[in-house]
Design brief:
alpha/beta; two-stranded antiparallel ribbon; single chain; 12 strands; Rossmann fold; 24% strand; eight-stranded mixed β-sheet
Amino acid sequence: MRAVNVLLYEGFTTMDALGPAEALSRALDDGRKCYEIEYFSVAGGLVGGSTNAKIWTRKLNEIAKFDVLLVPGGFAARKLAHESGFIAILGELARRHEYVIAVCTGSVLLAKIGLLDGMEATSNKLSWQWAILEAPGVRWIRGARWCVSGKFYTGSGVSAGIDAALGFIADMHGRDEAQRIARAMEYVWNSDKNADLF
């Protein structure tokens, strides 16, 4: 089983993290679960999200497998984007993981590392001007629901994280599996990554 390591910080948007985590947790290969979801933060312990949900996290040095890193967004991302210590830690994690999925303003945190320079990415349309000013080296695609650039998947605002996660599942395990998960979740998957209604 592969690991999905969710990087949390105080004030993360709950659905940015838990929406994709739910989709990924349902992926099956020959009846066996493909992904184990784990939650981490810089200091470990309880981390509170936008809905006041608190999730128990382990410290980053406890990460055992570097398969998929999931980076949610949130209003707190605007401050974290200027905290060099956090960006350095995120950079090390992003380089070590085989794949990285960033949602909403989590894409900007990822972009601050410099790994997305010259690559296509997207982010929350309500934070669009901030995103492009923070990381002008990125080829920001406003009309995208999500973007794929090498090992990096970036999703637009909040619910688009589920679409991006299902897109990742389709790429890794086939479109039928992504559609099966969407049906099981009773979720209408926006399966065209180049079509964002917002």
